[in-house]
Amino acid sequence: MNILTDLLTTDCISVYSPARNKAEVFTTAGDLFEKRLGISSNTVVEVLNAREDRSSTALSSGVAIPHGIVTTLKKPAAALIKLAKPIDFAAPDQNKISILIFLLFPEIAIPEHLQILSFTAQLLLDYDIRENLLLEQDPQKIFELLTFSNDFDDTHQIAESRHLLQSIEASKYNIQSYIDEWAMLEVSRR
Predict the structure, then answer these.
(1) Is 109 helix (H, G, I), strand (E, B) or coil?
(2) Is residue 19 part of a domain?
(3) For position 164, which CATH number holds?
(4) Nearest Cα to 4, choosing from 115, 141, 139, 167?
(5) Least confident window among 14-18, 82-86, 102-106, 151-155
């Protein structure tokens, strides 16, 4: 079990989505969240676009973590979309994106949000997990892969994966962008 266990459900996992661009994949995510949480798909799309307009949420290695704040939520929620064909997403390594984990947060709670974003980024940038996600077609098995993956709290676990270290270095700018974003939002709340 890990931090995604309470955020993700199998009904919020879409496998081989036919979305052909960012707008279509955001609409698909909005529809998943609307069915699960009862919030408007349009609201989700607006929140995701507003965040994406500041800077791309694509990491490297074909993954992205689009996210945003929906104040009517009671707790954070996640959805995973695996695309049938990769799409452009302004990734720092110029690779197209195949796997997206969407995160919605109810309000600004910087420590919790950074922990969730950091864990999700580390999970997606792990070469073995990412490759298994690309191969897996069953939403239940994808859910198990994500929620039963080890926490990445120990530095030595991260250092053991050379692929993860390379991906994290390539994505350093985006991770710093997430941290800067939450800091700006916290200052604006005061």
Answers:
(1) coil
(2) yes
(3) 3.40.930.10
(4) 115
(5) 151-155
